[in-house]
Design goal:
single chain, alpha+beta, five-stranded mixed sheet, 5 strands
């Protein structure tokens, strides 16, 4: 059974694909690939995106949290909302074709020890593993630095999970000008 040839190009194709067959061979269609969507970075309010966060928080927790047998995922939604209203919580989002695929949660304001200096401390960051290849992660942190500068913060800090992927994020952050300045030690109690 032979199907009739389409009279119009397929949706999202700029033009009908050209034949790449040689004489005496069965005709083949050349694939026309569209460029992947570019990530969109934006600063969004918690109350605008809270409904999108539970599945991402769960994936983030499954992938990165230590001691999951005693430390259950249990976000303090009231505190997130309070920090949002107070202007402390700033969220950089990463979207692909409108879908939330990553975030950086930033706590912005004066430091408890240096109240005349604005600090931007990253509470957490996560990017869907599908989008970690290529430049999306680098672009996310560059967008973070641009935003922090616009907020007039003098210092930015980003904690990194050492157990995750051999702490590869450290190398990325060092290339963007960050330096290792502190080590956080933890232990299980009981």
């Amino acid at each position: 059974m032979t199907l009739p040839a389409p009279t119009t190009p397929l949706p999202s194709s700029p033009a009908a694909p050209a034949s790449t067959s040689r004489p005496g061979q069965r005709p083949r269609l050349a694939l026309v690939r569209s460029a992947p969507a570019a990530p969109e970075f934006a600063w969004e309010r918690f109350n605008q995106l809270a409904h999108e966060l539970p599945p991402l928080f769960h994936e983030h927790w499954k992938e990165l949290a230590l001691n999951q047998d005693i430390v259950k995922l249990d976000p303090n939604w009231d505190q997130f909302y309070a920090f949002d209203v107070q202007g402390i919580l700033r969220i950089l989002t990463v979207r692909m074709e409108g879908r939330l695929v990553g975030y950086v949660f930033l706590l912005f304001g004066p430091h408890l020890h240096y109240k005349s200096t604005a600090w931007a401390h990253c509470d957490m960051f996560w990017l869907d593993p599908i989008y970690r290849q290529g430049w999306t992660g680098v672009k996310m942190f560059k967008a973070l630095l641009r935003g922090v500068e616009e907020m007039d913060a003098k210092i930015a800090s980003v904690p990194v999970k050492l157990h995750f992927m051999n702490a590869r994020v450290i190398k990325l952050l060092e290339r963007l000008g960050f330096k290792q300045t502190e080590v956080l030690m933890t232990t299980r109690i009981g």
